[in-house]
């Protein structure tokens, strides 16, 4: 039995200190602004992206890694011959990234084994899963044990997010079952989620951001009658609002640790500026 090397893609939006601490390998997606292309969070930072987004005349677009991009990372991870590779990626309902990883898996299957998992979520929804799996791998857990941790978190985690506008999700084609909300007026704020199929879907709505925020916290409490095992707050270009959410979670749920993650350029290209999200893993009874 070899060690487990955890691989993900850049849409997991994992803070760099955790990537380095846990030895996570990242395959970047690309974001395109006008005639320029950038590797997600490698040669454009989230702050630079949101600044340029506000000045852009066209909507940004994104593209997935090629199977060869994955093959190169898989071969690097497998070069010592004693590594089990676990590759966890952005929801297949939102991107072809998972399919690229599967194709790469088939291209190296005669050389070594790769296990590929569809996270059925996005941003630090993936990241929180990857971080916990990478911690388990670092502690010496087996591939089967790491896969079991990932599957439990995929099945049980919850996502709620607020966007300033549905325009980015709509034009990027990622709006899924939330399409009925397009065109809502009168300051109605949709509360969005990601369903069990990994699609964006409407969960609720409220008039104004303050009421929408209150409703998000109501939903969190309904989901977690026994409290929260893990929780994260995500933000785009609105760190101060995110800090307020972190403080509220710590107070209302008596949590010592709340992950704080910045939404990177690729996810930000579809969610837009001003996005806030909570990823939670309720405690089991």
Automatic annotation (TrEMBL):
Keywords: Lipid-binding. Pfam families: DegV. Coiled coil: none annotated. GO terms for molecular function: lipid binding. This is EDD domain protein, DegV family. The lineage of its organism: Bacteria, Bacillati, Bacillota, Bacilli, Bacillales.
